[in-house]
Design brief:
4-stranded antiparallel sheet; Methylamine Dehydrogenase, Chain H; 7 helices
């Protein structure tokens, strides 16, 4: 019995020793794997052209960090990054709009869907399915309870959207959409009337139509004897519609179709774009004759001619105070003009910054532009100044929008994503100066990285870039989301 006990004791000690060695080897292997992953994350971050991805990767590097991490983190803090990367569409995103309260973002894509997102990227995404062609245009009603989509399938749809739920993200449609059929070609623009009771659509059948938003009743077609409409816009009170046309005319119609339209004559080539002033008293038109013109909406007097572009003017807009105009041209520039034609315009963009989309800020003091090469820029609309540049998209940015409060911008790209950015000069951290970032120590740098953006690597990105296993990647993404929430709400320390 004594011998047996001795043998059992020895065996127990041997097993314990072997287990301890195995445990030490496992711990060492995990530590080695973590170090390899840290080095890989740092290397990928330094090679990436996307500042948002760089910040997200650098936050993944554990302590002690490998050589070069502090320098890379200091550089990353010096560039604007996205607050949210809205990924899920399977094709180019071609349309984007903020909800009136700024909490949601609506996108339209060539994948035949529209999607409703929380502007912060949190919660579930609502996918609006039903179109059998690309969703070319999107709009919110003024109360934010309905959205409209226009499609290459020749229809527009009006969807009733439930109010957003705080924890779950944007709510989905409460019933089937109203389908507005009648156009004979792609619907390329949709807009609600100010009261939300009507919807204006424009199509490549060269007509504009005003529909009852509930689908009850007939649409009013605005086209003239020979349909040639290229652009259309509601007046601020919703009683009139301005159209641009291939027949060299701008027109102002009664939205109910009554009477004859007022004709705005003067352009030498096709009129391609149109917009009302905020008070409804003026109309601006853009034309293939390389000019824009500002007209009295009642057709009286002579227009102000804004000449200077080197190619067709394809988009026009008034600032919110009506004092300035934004034009965009196929010469790859945008220009900000005095609406009365006084002074030289401010020119934005050029050969090295080819502008393909542009919009005024709500207060009219800034212009956001999407570029052919995937960059986004924000310029002052009041003076000549260098723009703030936002990088990260991998393809052209064909649609941009400001949030209603002017504090954020959304950019929709052919890379299939939409990004939401804080406008430089607003927000909790903005952009650290180079000396501030360089002088910070590693703990402070790590905290600033976590404060910089709420964006976290998706599980799929972790698997692809860092080689994490599926379950580990999902857990790490959840942990990142929680850390960001704690950090930005001051409910806990920033970082791991």
């Amino acid at each position: 019995m004594t011998v047996a006990r001795v043998i059992a004791g020895v065996a127990f000690l041997l097993v314990t020793a072997v287990a301890a060695v195995a445990l030490q080897q496992l711990v060492r292997a995990r530590a080695d794997a973590a170090r390899v992953r840290d080095v890989a994350a740092l290397a990928i971050a330094e090679q990436s052209a996307d500042p948002t991805l760089r910040v997200a990767l650098l936050r993944e590097v554990g302590e002690p960090a490998p050589p070069g991490w502090s320098e890379a983190a200091a550089r990353a803090l010096h560039e604007p990054v996205a607050d949210a990367v809205l990924a899920g569409h399977s094709a180019e995103v071609v349309a984007v709009a903020f909800s009136p309260d700024g909490t949601r973002v609506l996108t339209g894509s060539n994948d035949h869907t529209a999607r409703l997102w929380s502007a912060d990227g949190a919660g579930q995404v609502v996918v609006l399915r039903g179109h059998v062609g690309a969703v070319t245009s999107v709009a919110f009603s003024s109360d934010g309870r309905r959205v409209a989509t226009g499609s290459a399938d020749g229809t527009a749809r009006v969807w009733r959207i439930d109010p957003p739920r705080q924890a779950a993200g944007p709510a989905g449609p409460s019933d089937d959409p109203v389908v507005l059929s009648g156009h004979r070609a792609e619907v390329v623009a949709v807009a609600f009337s100010p009261r939300g009771d009507r919807l204006l659509t424009r199509s490549w059948d060269y007509t504009a139509r005003v529909w009852p938003a509930d689908g009850v009743g007939a649409a009013v077609e605005l086209a003239g004897e020979f349909p040639a409409v290229t652009s259309a816009a509601f007046s601020p009170d919703g009683t009139r519609v301005a159209t641009a046309s291939w027949d060299l005319l701008g027109r102002v119609w009664n939205a109910d179709g009554s009477g004859r339209p007022i004709e705005l004559r003067g352009h030498a080539l096709a009129v391609t774009s149109v917009a009302f002033s905020p008070d409804g008293g003026e109309v601006v038109t853009g034309s293939d004759d390389d000019t824009a013109r500002v007209w009295r909406a009642d057709g009286s007097g002579q227009p102000v001619v804004l000449a200077g572009h080197d190619a067709e003017v394809v988009a026009v807009a008034f600032s919110s105070d009506g004092r300035r105009l934004l034009t965009r041209s196929w010469d790859h520039t945008a220009r900000v003009w005095r609406a009365d034609g006084a002074e030289r315009p401010i020119e934005l963009g050029g050969p090295r910054a080819e502008i393909v989309s542009a919009a005024f800020s709500p207060d009219g003091t800034r212009v956001v532009a999407g570029l052919e090469d995937g960059r986004v820029r924000v310029w002052s609309a009041e003076r000549v100044a260098s723009p703030v540049e936002y990088k990260g998209h991998a393809a052209r940015v064909g649609a941009v929008a400001f949030s209603p409060d002017g504090g954020r911008i959304a950019s929709a790209s052919d890379d299939g994503t939409t990004r939401v950015w804080r406008v430089h000069g607003r927000g909790v951290d903005d952009v650290d100066g180079p000396s501030e970032a360089r002088d910070a120590g590693p703990p402070d740098l790590r905290a600033r990285l976590w404060q910089k953006t709420p964006f976290c690597l998706s599980a799929e990105a972790r698997e692809r870039l860092l080689g994490q296993a599926s379950e580990e990647a999902r857990r790490a993404t959840r942990d990142c989301d929680m850390r960001v929430a704690r950090c930005r709400s001051n409910a806990g320390p920033c970082g791991p």
